[in-house]
Amino acid sequence: MSILSSMRYCLGSPTSYGPIYIALAFIPFGLFFDFMDGKVARWRKKSSLMGQELDSLADLISFGVAPASAAFALGLRTPLDTLLLSFFVLCGLTRLARFNVTVSTLPKDATGKSKYFEGTPIPTSLGMVAAMAWAVSQGYVIGGEKGVLGGVIGDELSWWGGVHPVVGVFVGWGCAMVSRSIHIPKP
Fold first, then answer.
1. Measured between alpha carbons, how far is 77 from 133 in angstroms, rounded to an integer?
2. What dihedral angle (degrees, nearest 10) is formed by the CA atoms of 117, 123, 127, 128?
3. Which tens digits make up the pLDDT trace of 71-121?
4. Taking the CA of residue 37 as centre, how many other CA atoms within 13 Å lie in the half-sphere pointing to its CB?
5. How far is residue 42's CA from residue 154's CA, in Å, rounded to a whole number?
6. What is the b/e burial string over 107-128, where b = at least 16 CB atoms within 10 angstroms of the residue's CB?
């Protein structure tokens, strides 16, 4: 629903914020369902490789593709912006794939859970979602009162289309997700 609401915002008036607020509001539901599917699996004492892969796919869509789609809808639309948003999504994919492959080799605690996350977990992208909601509330969107937060570097009409510096947050977040040196303790 989030991705489709982002598309709906792109089709309408840039000052009609309803669809983009809906898009941003749906993303945190992914976190609720991510917690619940794990709880149900542990409660039932059942898990499967299929379930693990579907969980990763749902995480990629909820916390990778949906925030990138919302950022595109809000105005990060130059060719270079699009390339860098795609980099963020691919970092999320890489992070989840690496987790699925290495989860059995990470150090475990007494209950059998991994002691830490290697790289930032993809649901941390909810921080960017909150920032985007703030940007919308302040009018920092394409066609909005203040334009895209941070403006654009370069000519949007050139072959590379310039770049919005704020897309660097997505690049940094993506790099943090795939970092092998960041270890975040699991709760």
1. 18
2. 120
3. 999 999 999 999 999 999 999 999 999 988 887 777 777 766 777 888 999
4. 16
5. 51
6. eeeeeeebeebbbbbbbebbeb
